[in-house]
Design brief:
Helices cover 68% and strands 1% of the residues. It has one domain. The protein is built from 22 helices and four strands. The protein is globular. The two termini are 20 Å apart. The chain is mainly alpha-helical.
Length: 546
């Protein structure tokens, strides 16, 4: 049984959303942390891509810069979220402060970015988790079939799709079971995954470089390598990556900030939980949730990087991550967790470390699917989409039709992403879609005090520094941060343009396409509803019900 629309005579589809405030502050903090930068999963591949793409990149400096430039964005988002704590996040703020068409543009940008993220983490499961653990088990038990299967899950499109669909179907089931169940799964998987990551940290902390080199060479010898494979990997990359011991080039570190930000720029994502978060109107709670997630990500990414440098060294990590390094013969990618296990090469430790990475994908997918589902729900609730998508199951309080639509779209995007894009390009597209959202939100935040003084004066956003509204300070800074990210994609084609600078126009075209789609949704809905005798603009004159 579900709660559905009650006719066309009322402003909204119904007088209450049917959603329930079941999420706690801990749920929201984990939600932000695993959406923005699930530490172990980010280390598995994300940050080390930069070492081979940008010679002389300093990951630590890039991470610290990412922390700093995230601060104004988080403050802005926390103030707005506590002022209008409703399902829909930026869609509610922008439509009530600026104009409804801009709200559909910003919200679609965020939702499209999230669905890109959902496909990334679905692909992550076979490539970075299932494949490596099968190879590891095959090596331990001398089983060539497991090794072959593991390699197929990392390289063969059909195998990757089937492995990714396991996560898509599981995520669909979890979402349908309701918010409380969703966060129970999220938190449980996060605990297991984090435990494996911290075990990897301990192994790296206690282990030595000599032990790592010996175990790497011994394993490489099983697959036909001869002699010192560790140094052969470094030698094979000379001239293509920086193999000095402590490199730092500002021109390489700057684009690396973009690489870090593809994961770390989303610690405000709990704004889309506001309609289901306890005490969502509490400004301090919103700040604590967001800064808690940002601090967690920053500290442990830095720790993880320093520890792998301790046993493997910068030259090796830069070299082994270079695509097509002929000296690397082990039939699994040189992922962080796999390399960490070689510090001791104890079977039990290796299985626990590598196996724990099976649990990163689902919690990372929660935020990437939860948000676009709420976008579909909010749009339907305001009559932009068919009212059926605002239905909520009475028992689980989950918007089942919206869930099925979003997961269907994720499946279609998954197919396209596997066939047509690399991991790096796919993530960059997600950033650019998110930039559209934050740009528009920044404008709304800046004009909020003057454009909607009735809402602003009574809201938690009514805070000043030196007599100046805080939103007037952090909103322009947030806009500039997003502009910097776009600049990086144009300045450094390896980030989003597959290295082809002639395709610079892809960036504005992609972002313009997002804007066009959002506007089309709004105006088509407006025309269709007007034919039914409904003026949807009236909806945006007040906050939606809870």
């Amino acid at each position: 049984m579900s709660t559905s629309g009650s006719g066309e005579s009322q402003l909204f589809v119904r007088q209450s959303t049917g959603l329930v405030r079941e999420a706690s502050a801990l749920d929201a903090t984990i939600f932000n942390a695993v959406f923005s930068a699930p530490v172990g999963a980010t280390l598995a591949w994300g940050v080390f891509f930069a070492l081979s793409a940008f010679r002389g990149a300093d990951l630590i400096t890039a991470t610290l810069i990412s922390f700093v430039i995230n601060v104004p964005v988080i403050i802005m988002m926390a103030l707005l979220a506590s002022s209008m704590p409703r399902t829909g996040g930026d869609y509610v703020w922008v439509s009530r402060i600026l104009k409804p068409p801009l709200a559909t543009v910003s919200n679609f940008g965020a939702a499209f970015s999230a669905m890109i993220g959902a496909t990334f983490w679905a692909r992550y499961f076979p490539v970075f988790a299932l494949g490596p653990i099968l190879v590891t088990l095959g090596i331990f038990f001398n089983n060539s079939t497991l090794v072959r299967w593991g390699n197929n899950f990392q390289t063969k499109n059909w195998w990757i799709f089937l492995g990714a669909m396991v996560m898509v179907l599981l995520m669909t089931y979890v979402l349908i079971r309701g918010t409380r169940t969703t966060f129970r799964w999220q938190n449980s998987f996060w605990i297991i995954a984090s435990a494996g990551t911290f075990l990897a940290f301990i192994v790296l902390l206690v282990g030595s470089k000599g032990s790592f080199v010996n175990h790497f060479n011994d394993l490489s010898a099983k697959f036909g390598a001869h002699g010192d494979s560790f140094h052969a990997v470094i030698s094979a990359a000379k001239g293509q990556v920086d193999t000095s011991a402590h490199p730092f080039l500002w021109s390489s570190t700057l684009p690396t900030v973009f690489v870090i930000m593809t994961f770390m720029m989303w610690n405000w994502w709990s704004v889309y939980l506001s309609g289901e978060l306890k005490s969502a109107s509490n400004r301090d709670r919103q700040m604590g949730i967001m800064f808690g997630a940002l601090g967690w990500d920053t500290v442990f990414i830095i720790i993880g990087v320093l520890l792998i440098y301790k046993v493997a060294g910068y030259p090796f990590m830069a070299s082994v991550n270079l695509g097509g390094n002929s000296a690397y013969v082990i039939p699994t990618g040189p992922w962080y967790h796999f390399l960490a296990s070689l510090a001791f090469n104890v079977k039990l430790l290796t299985v626990l470390i590598v196996g724990s990475f099976l649990f990163w994908s689902l919690p990372a997918m929660v935020g990437n699917t939860f948000m676009p589902v709420r976008t579909v729900f909010a749009w339907a609730f305001d009559r932009l989409l068919p009212e059926k998508f605002a239905d909520v199951n009475d028992r689980t309080h989950s918007p089942v039709p919206a869930i099925l639509l979003v997961m269907g779209l994720v499946t279609a995007m998954l197919v396209w992403s596997i066939k047509a894009t690399t991991f790096a390009t796919w993530l960059a597209l997600g950033v650019l879609a998110g930039v559209v959202c934050v740009w528009i939100v920044s404008i709304a935040a800046f004009v909020f005090p003057s454009r909607r003084p009735d809402l602003y004066r009574a809201s938690p956003a009514n805070v000043t520094w030196g007599g100046v509204p805080v939103l007037k300070i952090v909103a322009p800074l947030s806009f500039l941060v997003m502009t910097f990210l776009v600049y990086c994609t144009l300045k450094y084609p390896a980030l989003a343009l597959a290295g082809n600078s002639k395709h610079w126009w892809y960036v504005p075209a992609f972002m313009g396409g997002i804007a066009a789609f959002g506007l089309i949704v709004y105006y088509v809905a407006k025309i269709a509803r007007r034919a039914q005798g409904i003026d949807i603009d009236l909806v945006y004159r007040e906050l939606p019900p809870e």
